[in-house]
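A sample copied in:

***
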Amino acid sequence: MAAKKTAKKTTESAPADSAPTPAPVAKKAAKKAPAKKAAAPKEPATPKATKAPKAAAPAKPAPASTAKASPDAIARAAYLNYRRRVEQGLPGDSHGDWVEAERQLG
């Protein structure tokens, strides 16, 4: 059998009173399993053809004033709502026009 060659490391002579320092030990990093997200329940898809078409009337932003609108202003807005509703052929009544006017004016 052949003899193995071993390499000898040369180190500087350390003082006799100091203990040899151990080589640092490499630690293996533990892999963490990725967190699983909770699956949200999916809602069944509804066909777009069955949805009712939305009205083409643009929504007007409410005024920033906190004061109540006068009954005359509400009446004018209700009349305009009525005219828009009739021109577009939408169903409704005068009470709905009045309530919508109150909501628009504040």
